[in-house]
Amino acid sequence: MAVVYLDRQHAGKPGRRARDRGAAMDMDLSGAIEADELEAMLTAQYLLTCELALIDAGHIVIPISDGWYGDRHGRVNQYAGTFSASQGPQVYVAAHLNAGWAGREGNAYGAIFYDQRSRRGPVLALEVARKLRPVAPELSEVKLIAAGPEGWTRPAYGTLSGVVQPVTICFEPAFMDCPAHADLLSGPGLKLIGRALAAGINRFADIA
User: Fold this and answer.
1) What structural domains does the chain harbor?
2) Strands 167-172, 90-95: parallel, antiparallel or unpaired by DSSP?
3) Tens digits of per-residue pLDDT, 156-200?
Protein backbone atom coordinates (compact mmCIF):
# COMPACT_ATOMS: atom_id res chain seq x y z
CA MET A 1 0.00 0.00 0.00
CA ALA A 2 1.03 3.61 -0.54
CA VAL A 3 -0.28 7.09 0.16
CA VAL A 4 -0.36 8.99 -3.13
CA TYR A 5 -0.83 12.74 -3.65
CA LEU A 6 -1.92 13.59 -7.20
CA ASP A 7 -1.41 17.30 -7.81
CA ARG A 8 -3.17 18.77 -10.83
CA GLN A 9 -0.81 21.68 -11.23
CA HIS A 10 -1.48 24.98 -13.03
CA ALA A 11 -5.18 24.78 -12.11
CA GLY A 12 -6.40 26.36 -8.88
CA LYS A 13 -4.00 29.27 -8.46
CA PRO A 14 -5.51 32.26 -6.66
CA GLY A 15 -5.80 35.94 -7.54
CA ARG A 16 -4.32 37.14 -10.80
CA ARG A 17 -3.41 33.59 -11.84
CA ALA A 18 -6.88 32.11 -11.30
CA ARG A 19 -7.40 31.58 -15.05
CA ASP A 20 -4.10 29.76 -15.50
CA ARG A 21 -4.46 26.27 -16.94
CA GLY A 22 -0.92 25.86 -18.24
CA ALA A 23 0.03 25.37 -21.87
CA ALA A 24 -2.62 26.06 -24.50
CA MET A 25 -2.46 24.51 -27.98
CA ASP A 26 -4.84 24.41 -30.94
CA MET A 27 -4.45 20.66 -31.03
CA ASP A 28 -7.32 19.96 -33.43
CA LEU A 29 -6.20 22.77 -35.78
CA SER A 30 -9.65 24.38 -35.65
CA GLY A 31 -8.22 27.88 -35.53
CA ALA A 32 -9.20 28.40 -31.90
CA ILE A 33 -8.00 27.07 -28.56
CA GLU A 34 -10.86 25.51 -26.65
CA ALA A 35 -11.07 24.64 -22.95
CA ASP A 36 -10.29 20.99 -23.55
CA GLU A 37 -7.03 22.00 -25.25
CA LEU A 38 -5.55 23.42 -22.05
CA GLU A 39 -2.87 21.50 -20.17
CA ALA A 40 -4.63 21.23 -16.83
CA MET A 41 -7.81 19.98 -18.48
CA LEU A 42 -5.86 17.16 -20.12
CA THR A 43 -3.89 16.22 -17.02
CA ALA A 44 -7.19 15.99 -15.13
CA GLN A 45 -8.17 13.14 -17.43
CA TYR A 46 -5.08 11.01 -16.89
CA LEU A 47 -5.12 11.79 -13.16
CA LEU A 48 -8.69 10.52 -12.75
CA THR A 49 -7.80 7.25 -14.45
CA CYS A 50 -4.70 6.98 -12.28
CA GLU A 51 -6.70 7.65 -9.12
CA LEU A 52 -9.27 4.99 -9.97
CA ALA A 53 -6.57 2.41 -10.67
CA LEU A 54 -4.71 3.23 -7.46
CA ILE A 55 -7.86 2.99 -5.34
CA ASP A 56 -8.72 -0.34 -6.98
CA ALA A 57 -5.22 -1.54 -6.01
CA GLY A 58 -5.78 -0.58 -2.37
CA HIS A 59 -3.78 2.63 -2.15
CA ILE A 60 -4.80 5.86 -0.39
CA VAL A 61 -5.13 8.76 -2.84
CA ILE A 62 -5.31 12.46 -1.98
CA PRO A 63 -6.05 14.69 -5.01
CA ILE A 64 -4.75 18.26 -4.86
CA SER A 65 -5.72 21.03 -7.26
CA ASP A 66 -5.60 24.44 -5.61
CA GLY A 67 -3.18 27.01 -4.18
CA TRP A 68 0.30 28.23 -4.98
CA TYR A 69 2.73 25.37 -5.32
CA GLY A 70 4.49 26.23 -2.06
CA ASP A 71 1.16 26.15 -0.24
CA ARG A 72 0.32 22.79 -1.78
CA HIS A 73 3.69 21.41 -0.72
CA GLY A 74 3.09 22.66 2.81
CA ARG A 75 -0.27 20.90 2.96
CA VAL A 76 1.26 17.67 1.67
CA ASN A 77 3.94 17.83 4.35
CA GLN A 78 1.23 18.36 6.95
CA TYR A 79 -0.88 15.50 5.63
CA ALA A 80 2.16 13.22 5.44
CA GLY A 81 2.58 13.44 9.19
CA THR A 82 -0.87 11.95 9.76
CA PHE A 83 0.04 8.59 8.20
CA SER A 84 2.11 5.83 9.77
CA ALA A 85 4.97 3.91 8.18
CA SER A 86 2.74 0.83 8.17
CA GLN A 87 0.61 2.50 5.49
CA GLY A 88 3.48 2.28 3.04
CA PRO A 89 5.59 4.82 1.18
CA GLN A 90 4.22 8.24 0.33
CA VAL A 91 4.36 9.49 -3.26
CA TYR A 92 3.73 12.95 -4.73
CA VAL A 93 3.09 13.51 -8.45
CA ALA A 94 3.14 17.01 -9.96
CA ALA A 95 1.03 16.44 -13.08
CA HIS A 96 1.91 18.27 -16.28
CA LEU A 97 2.22 17.93 -20.03
CA ASN A 98 5.12 19.27 -22.03
CA ALA A 99 5.06 21.97 -24.72
CA GLY A 100 7.62 23.54 -27.01
CA TRP A 101 8.31 20.51 -29.14
CA ALA A 102 8.97 22.64 -32.25
CA GLY A 103 12.61 22.34 -33.16
CA ARG A 104 12.93 18.96 -31.45
CA GLU A 105 11.90 16.97 -34.53
CA GLY A 106 12.89 13.33 -34.17
CA ASN A 107 12.99 13.63 -30.37
CA ALA A 108 9.39 13.01 -29.34
CA TYR A 109 10.10 11.98 -25.78
CA GLY A 110 8.25 11.84 -22.49
CA ALA A 111 9.95 13.16 -19.36
CA ILE A 112 9.88 12.35 -15.67
CA PHE A 113 11.71 14.76 -13.39
CA TYR A 114 12.77 13.92 -9.84
CA ASP A 115 14.32 15.97 -7.05
CA GLN A 116 18.11 15.80 -7.37
CA ARG A 117 18.34 15.60 -3.56
CA SER A 118 16.23 12.46 -3.40
CA ARG A 119 17.58 8.94 -3.08
CA ARG A 120 14.30 7.21 -3.97
CA GLY A 121 13.08 9.74 -6.55
CA PRO A 122 15.06 8.13 -9.38
CA VAL A 123 13.63 4.74 -8.40
CA LEU A 124 10.04 6.00 -8.57
CA ALA A 125 10.73 7.74 -11.89
CA LEU A 126 12.26 4.58 -13.34
CA GLU A 127 9.32 2.37 -12.33
CA VAL A 128 6.83 4.80 -13.91
CA ALA A 129 8.95 4.99 -17.07
CA ARG A 130 9.09 1.20 -17.26
CA LYS A 131 5.29 1.04 -17.29
CA LEU A 132 4.78 3.97 -19.67
CA ARG A 133 7.31 3.20 -22.39
CA PRO A 134 5.97 -0.20 -23.57
CA VAL A 135 2.38 1.04 -23.94
CA ALA A 136 3.25 4.34 -25.61
CA PRO A 137 5.16 3.64 -28.83
CA GLU A 138 4.54 7.26 -29.82
CA LEU A 139 7.32 8.21 -27.41
CA SER A 140 10.86 8.04 -28.76
CA GLU A 141 12.00 7.47 -25.16
CA VAL A 142 11.08 8.36 -21.59
CA LYS A 143 13.78 10.56 -20.09
CA LEU A 144 14.55 10.47 -16.36
CA ILE A 145 15.86 13.90 -15.38
CA ALA A 146 17.26 15.15 -12.07
CA ALA A 147 15.78 18.57 -11.34
CA GLY A 148 17.59 21.21 -9.32
CA PRO A 149 17.40 24.90 -8.45
CA GLU A 150 19.82 25.97 -11.19
CA GLY A 151 19.69 25.76 -14.98
CA TRP A 152 16.95 24.61 -17.31
CA THR A 153 15.41 22.13 -14.83
CA ARG A 154 14.60 24.90 -12.33
CA PRO A 155 10.89 25.16 -13.33
CA ALA A 156 10.41 21.41 -12.83
CA TYR A 157 12.23 21.62 -9.51
CA GLY A 158 9.79 24.30 -8.38
CA THR A 159 6.86 21.96 -8.91
CA LEU A 160 8.08 19.58 -6.19
CA SER A 161 10.95 21.14 -4.22
CA GLY A 162 8.93 21.98 -1.11
CA VAL A 163 7.72 18.44 -0.50
CA VAL A 164 9.69 16.81 2.32
CA GLN A 165 8.58 13.27 3.16
CA PRO A 166 6.80 11.87 0.08
CA VAL A 167 8.93 10.72 -2.84
CA THR A 168 8.31 13.17 -5.68
CA ILE A 169 8.18 13.30 -9.45
CA CYS A 170 7.12 15.92 -11.98
CA PHE A 171 5.36 13.92 -14.69
CA GLU A 172 5.42 15.24 -18.27
CA PRO A 173 4.52 12.19 -20.36
CA ALA A 174 4.03 13.84 -23.77
CA PHE A 175 4.26 17.06 -25.80
CA MET A 176 0.98 18.85 -26.49
CA ASP A 177 2.35 20.28 -29.74
CA CYS A 178 4.01 17.12 -31.08
CA PRO A 179 1.99 15.59 -33.95
CA ALA A 180 3.31 12.12 -33.08
CA HIS A 181 1.71 12.42 -29.63
CA ALA A 182 -1.79 13.30 -30.84
CA ASP A 183 -3.22 9.84 -30.13
CA LEU A 184 -1.65 9.82 -26.65
CA LEU A 185 -3.50 13.04 -25.85
CA SER A 186 -6.88 11.71 -26.98
CA GLY A 187 -9.34 10.33 -24.45
CA PRO A 188 -8.12 6.72 -24.77
CA GLY A 189 -4.50 7.84 -24.82
CA LEU A 190 -4.84 9.87 -21.63
CA LYS A 191 -6.43 6.87 -19.92
CA LEU A 192 -3.48 4.76 -21.05
CA ILE A 193 -1.10 7.32 -19.53
CA GLY A 194 -3.07 7.31 -16.28
CA ARG A 195 -3.01 3.52 -16.01
CA ALA A 196 0.74 3.47 -16.69
CA LEU A 197 1.36 6.09 -14.01
CA ALA A 198 -0.67 4.06 -11.51
CA ALA A 199 1.13 0.85 -12.45
CA GLY A 200 4.51 2.48 -11.91
CA ILE A 201 3.48 3.82 -8.50
CA ASN A 202 2.07 0.41 -7.60
CA ARG A 203 5.36 -1.27 -8.51
CA PHE A 204 7.31 1.32 -6.50
CA ALA A 205 5.12 0.62 -3.48
CA ASP A 206 5.91 -3.09 -3.81
CA ILE A 207 9.68 -2.59 -3.75
CA ALA A 208 10.01 0.46 -1.47
Assistant:
1) 3-207 (3.40.630.40)
2) parallel
3) 999 999 999 999 999 999 999 999 999 999 999 999 999 999 999
